[in-house]
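On clarity, I found the account of how folds are encoded harder to follow than it need be. What matters is that the chain and its backbone geometry are given together, residue for residue. I therefore recommend that a typical entry be quoted early in the introduction. An entry of this sort, consisting of the sequence and the corresponding backbone structure tokens, reads as follows:
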Amino acid sequence: MNNKLIRKDVLCRVCSSNNIETVVKLNDTPLEDQFVDKAYKHNEQRAFPLELAICKDCGYMHLPHIVSPEVSYVDYLYKSSTTPGLGSHYDQYAKDIVDRYSIPKKSLIVDLGSNDGSMLASFKKQDMNVIGVEPATLIADYANQSGITTINGFFSDEVVSGIVQDYGKAEVITANYMFANVDDIISFTNSVESLLSDSGVFVIETGYHPEQFKIKMFDYIYHEHFSYFTVGVLASLLNKCGLEMIDAEKTEPKGGSIRVVAQSCNGKRVIKPSVKKIIDEEDLNGIYNIDTYSRFSDSIQKIKRELTALLSSIKDKGGSIVGLGASHSTTTLIYHFELHEFIEYIVDDNEIKQGLYSPGHHIPVYSTSKIYSDKPDYVIILAWQHRNSILKRHKEFVENGGKFIIPLPVIRIVD
């Protein structure tokens, strides 16, 4: 195994225990967002192990096989602005933080893993000074061109020193759907503590697998998501780094998320009862029990068998099937459910993805307009988490005789 590309951790990255056990094992998968152009479609892309493990001492859930972040972000293409509903969510998010924590106007807001600046644009509407930190070069360039000051690089003590020297300490630091993507999570969080003002707050919003797994959302597992946090584990992690969690709440995006807020351990804000409430709920629901994940894996395999039987039947009868959605999660779904043999091509609204080929299997990606000119018999909604907005946007396809297949959480045909 090339240790420059991938390593296997035998120690917990939070508590250093070696008491780790794999609880969900998916098919080996290439880097999920590395769609390639025509010149590379005949080149083989390596597939890496994709497993979910839990530390039986502290409860930290994570990928034991870590693909280098430098490799993951070389050709990173996802833009926050392409996710349906995320812009309005960020507007409300920014307003909530500013109002709830009485953040003065013109305060410094730093967003880590700031992507195309969508989150910071919402804070600018609240009359704040904003800086992003984003490792993907093309995405950082896009954000800067859009008027969002963005540092292109990985967040580190060196980046902290530069920000503090030029702008001072941050009143708000946000980590939106990126905290799970951090490899050295302890060093990263220590750097956050160094950048945060004494009166500041650190806000993390991240996917929440206890809710996601209720709807069979296994496809949120992919190589860029190193960590799968519970509130209990996050509280412990933050405390190790001189921060204390003062609030926690469940939110809706990504099939189920959590937003937690922390301050310096000498901060003046009171810890809200919501923190203990959710931690107690996690314990009650057995979220650290191995059996919970065995049942989850079994349920996913059952859906896989039923879906592939349905698609095989359609193909046997001469039906045509295309996929809708070209993203990280759809790559996981295609690989674990082995859908490539059924799908003729993929359509997606993201112009960046159009004209490219999917990771590994190199299924061509086109504009969604192609389903209206080609009129395939079935479109399987690979981006099934957005099924409601997709069905609403493409009512005409059904009206013209087409059928949609929704694969999860329950297989359904919409005609």
Observations:
- The mean pLDDT is 93.
- Residues 290-316 form the longest helix (27 residues).
- The chain is about 35% helix and 25% strand.
- The two ends are 47 Å apart (CA to CA).
